[in-house]
Amino acid sequence: RMETDCNPMELPSNTEFEEDSDYRDFEGTDVKDMRLEAEAVVNDVLFAVSNMFVSKTLPCAEDVAYINVETRERNRYCLELTEAGLRVVAYDFDQTDDRLQTPYHETVYSLLDSLSPAYREVFGNALLQRLEALKKESQS
């Protein structure tokens, strides 16, 4: 499962359908659209990479989406997002290489941490700034 920040105020308030027995057993109601999941992944870490966007040329489906990312080191990757997680499928935008056997990562943070020292630094600094802000807030 992908971890993303979620603001409870952004959640839809009309969730009555979940209690409705007509819908509860409907196959596929718990399937997430991977394009939406991919957009959330991009929004979560865009600040820490040079460029990142959901592929418009590779096909997105309910069970798979592709994300192009360029690290601050200027390395380009095409990532595959599935229920299994994220993995590198090519070393360029909008490509897949079936010969590439790269491991799945549970989170985008873990994947980028393994690919980009600059990402690690920027993300770590952002985390420190957030912690400092929280510390100041609690002291006032």
Automatic annotation (TrEMBL):
GO terms for biological process: regulation of canonical Wnt signaling pathway. This is GSKIP protein. It holds the Pfam family GSKIP_dom. SUPFAM superfamilies: Hypothetical protein c14orf129, hspc210. PANTHER family: GSK3B-INTERACTING PROTEIN. Belongs to the GSKIP family. It comes from the Eukaryota. One of its GO terms (cellular component) is cytoplasm. GO terms for molecular function: kinase regulator activity; protein kinase A binding. Gene3D superfamilies: Hypothetical protein (hspc210). It comes from Dryoscopus gambensis. The gene is Gskip. Residues 34-134 form the GSKIP domain.
